[in-house]
Design a protein that fits this description.
alpha+beta, Beta-lactamase, 4-stranded antiparallel sheet, 8-stranded antiparallel sheet
């Protein structure tokens, strides 16, 4: 249930606790206080971090129901040893893999919906990096409104200190594709970038000090600083015309409520004047994440309304040109979404990917949106598993 190994090195824990005691840090008011108090990252830590609410749509848009277990016999999924052809077999296996929510939309209708470990349809789930794909939709909307440009340099929106001027030359598009050249040091020690980013109480100051280690546009590196910088730049761009406007309020009016979604949360780095955690902070219901997948499947439309520009959706789900650093033999990464492994004579499949096996997987040919959420990934490659399900549908 942890993003970082639960077994920290003894000296790291000792130094952290001693530092917290000496500095009088407690609770979640400082970075080190959060690091010590909350410990390893998990799906429930959103309860202890500050957040902003995304209010539900005034007129929620229901998802039509067509629930049936007949797909199980047809698809004959396997748990590694035997076929899962009955609902109770699937329930037992999904629960054992740490799954908390499972949802399948076919042509916009719910054909399967299951919850485990005390969760139900109304439960909120920490989305982790699915948040990045949520942010991507906001970027497309803001660009269509003429308030933001992915071709712009970062320093057109964010003040970068002179000693780190190279960061200012990175474009928003390079950040969206994780080819920015930023340094990102993984690890559990409190001085590593991974925990510092996640538990920071002042993300804006941390982000503008992030150094480059490679030339922008040349190397793909999956990291979490780039989407945070995109979120920071978008916030600054929006506030040029609407001072005080937060990403949460913008998302609520432009995306969340038009989707017909229920209420949700978005973690921020600190309570007062905080910045949304655009790499991991969305907390939402499984049905509303399915709505996000359906939105992209429908080319950015909800009902008769174009919510996200169709050109932006197309640019996201179409593979980048040959030779691009964010194009791989088994897929691609573009505009904060992942492209799945190419399948002959099939439209490109794509997915939003979060830690602990959080997925929104979209299969255009079969008109499927598959959502899997959990407190652990279990022993499953969920991208491969959901892709195989789509193959057999």
């Amino acid at each position: 249930m942890s993003r970082f190994p639960r077994l920290r090195l003894a000296f790291v824990a000792s130094v952290s606790c001693l530092g917290a005691a000496l500095l009088g840090l407690s609770g979640c008011q400082t970075y080190l206080g959060r690091y010590v108090t909350l410990g390893p990252i998990d799906v429930d830590d959103y309860r202890h971090l500050p957040s902003r609410r995304l209010a539900a749509a005034g007129r929620p848009r229901p998802l039509p129901m067509a629930r049936t277990d007949s797909w199980l016999e047809r698809c004959r999924l396997e748990d590694g040893t035997r076929a899962l052809t009955r609902g109770e077999d699937l329930d037992r296996w999904l629960a054992a893999q740490g799954t908390t929510a499972w949802l399948i939309l076919e042509r916009g209708r719910v054909v399967d919906e299951r919850y485990y470990h005390g969760r139900d349809r109304d439960s909120l789930h920490k989305c982790f990096s699915i948040t990045k794909s949520f942010l991507a939709a906001l970027v497309g909307i803001a660009q269509a409104e003429g308030r933001f440009s992915v071709a712009a340099r970062l320093d057109e929106y964010v003040a970068i200190p002179p000693e780190n001027a190279a960061l200012g030359g990175v474009t928003v598009q390079q950040l969206l594709d994780n080819v920015s050249g930023l340094r990102y040091r993984r690890g559990v020690a409190p001085w590593r970038d991974q925990p510092r980013m996640y538990y920071s109480t002042d993300l804006r100051s941390l982000l503008v000090r992030s150094p480059l280690v490679t030339t922008p546009g040349r190397v793909f590196l999956p990291e979490d600083l780039s989407p945070l910088l995109v979120g920071y730049a978008l916030e600054r761009a929006l506030q040029r015309t609407e001072p005080g406007l937060t990403l949460s309020r913008y998302a609520e009016s432009r995306l969340w409520q038009p989707l017909g979604a229920g209420d949700a949360l978005w973690n921020v780095d600190r309570p007062a004047a905080g910045l949304e955690k655009s790499e991991s902070g969305l907390v939402a219901r499984a049905r509303d994440l399915a709505r996000l997948g359906q939105l992209y499947l429908n080319g950015g439309r909800v009902g008769g309304r174009q919510v996200v520009p169709a050109k932006w959706v197309q640019a996201t789900v179409r593979p980048p040109p040959r030779g691009a650093p964010n194009l791989f033999t088994d897929g691609f990464y573009q505009n904060l979404w992942w492209g799945a492994r190419p399948r002959p004579r099939r439209q490109q499949e794509y997915f939003a990917n979060g830690h602990f096996g959080q997925r929104i997987y979209v299969c255009p040919d079969k008109q499927l949106v598959l959502v899997r959420l959990g407190f652990a990934a279990g022993n499953v490659d969920w991208t491969e598993f959901l892709g195989r399900l789509a193959d057999r549908w």
